[in-house]
Design a protein that fits this description.
Elements (H helix, E strand, L loop, with lengths): L8 E5 L12 H14 L3 E6 L11 E4 L1 H5 L2 E5 L2 E7 L3 E4 L1
Antiparallel strand pairs: 1-2, 1-5, 2-3, 3-6, 4-5
């Protein structure tokens, strides 16, 4: 399936959230959430819109948490992707 992203939008791969089979203590739960938040600081670009410049598929990027909270989730090829504006991307590796 081929997709075409329009405008200044960027699709990012959403990190997979690990399922927990056991109940964790509140301290361990907080530590696990912190580790999952760290994954959001280094997201991989899945697709870029036709008007996006300087960002390529496969780049690693940092998007501020505030922008991620308002981002839309889009299902592509059975996986959820995070859709942000290119201006929301602060750092590219």
């Amino acid at each position: 399936m081929s997709i075409k992203v329009k405008g200044h939008r960027v699709l990012l791969n959403r990190p997979v959230k690990e399922e927990r089979l056991i109940k964790l203590s509140p301290e361990m739960e907080e530590a696990m959430e912190f580790e999952e938040l760290k994954k959001l600081k280094n997201l991989e670009v899945f697709a870029v819109g036709e008007e996006v410049q300087g960002i390529n598929v496969g780049d690693k990027v940092y998007v501020q948490l505030m922008s991620l909270q308002s981002a839309e989730l889009v299902e592509v090829e059975g996986n959820e992707k995070i859709m942000v504006r290119s201006s929301d991307i602060a750092i590219i590796w």
